[in-house]
Amino acid sequence: MAAPPREIREVQNALAVYEKLPEWNPLQERDLLAAHALLMKDLLDSAGSYRQRGVGVMGQNEVVHIAPPANRVPELMGNLFQWLKQTDFHPLVASSIFHYEFEFIHPFEDGNGRMGRFWQSLLLYQWSPVFEHLPIESMIFAHQQDYYDALNQSTQAGDSAPFLRFMLQTIKATQDTTPQDSPQFTPQVEALLGVLQGEMSRSDLMAALGLSDRKSFRERYLQPALQAGLIEMTIPDKPNSRLQKYRLVQR
After folding, report:
1. Bridge pairing between strands 231-233 and 56-58
2. One domain, residues 84 and 149
3. Higher pLDDT residue, 141 or 122?
4. Which of 66, 71, 108, 131 could be bridged to 124 by S-S, CB 3.0 to 4.6 A?
5. pTM of the shown model
6. What is the count of structural domains for the chain?
7. Which 3 state secondary structure label does DSSP give 97?
8. What are the tens digits of pLDDT across the range 23-39?
9. Whole-angstrom distance between the N-terminal and C-terminal Cα of the chain?
10. Among candidates 95, 98, 102, 103, which has minimal Cα distance to 125?
């Protein structure tokens, strides 16, 4: 069964944003708007623009956060970027505070969670290239409920400290875990897992991901997923067979 078209588009857009990681300037507000336009391309009419209406953040059965009025968003985001340019906090701390404040402002109609996590990844990548392979999205993947709980705790307390504590602990725990103990889920590997349905050939996977470069696909998507034991070949004794397909490893 193929993934729904919207999910495929979300994966393709996220990959396009991460592929440009070295090109974005995390201190430039216009780059954030351009990244959101790419992330939400064909998914949101207002992609790349701040919201023009009020929004709330839903919990399981109730609204847990009412974002500031839409007419305040440009000012609040401008102030946030100005603070980011001037702060002398350590990048680990500054990026986490930015992430929380971004989610509190909730500047877009949709895609705020993905953008906030990506922008912290970008800030950390600018500080240390190791974060190209340890993106925030991957770190939070296994701790999603804790992530949302920390956001809610900070919002209720009116203080970013609970969220800051969660992010620093998560980053440290991830860095302390070696690849042998816990394989890293890069955005490329996560995207591959997201589109793999049943058994698919290499060309089918590349088409689902919107990719054309066979070398890049092999080195950045296929081989890492195989080496991590996340996917397997249907004909393992003939890896180069033209009939070769790939499937998720059943655990």
Report:
1. unpaired
2. yes
3. 122
4. 131
5. 0.76
6. 2
7. helix
8. 999 999 999 999 999 99
9. 20
10. 95
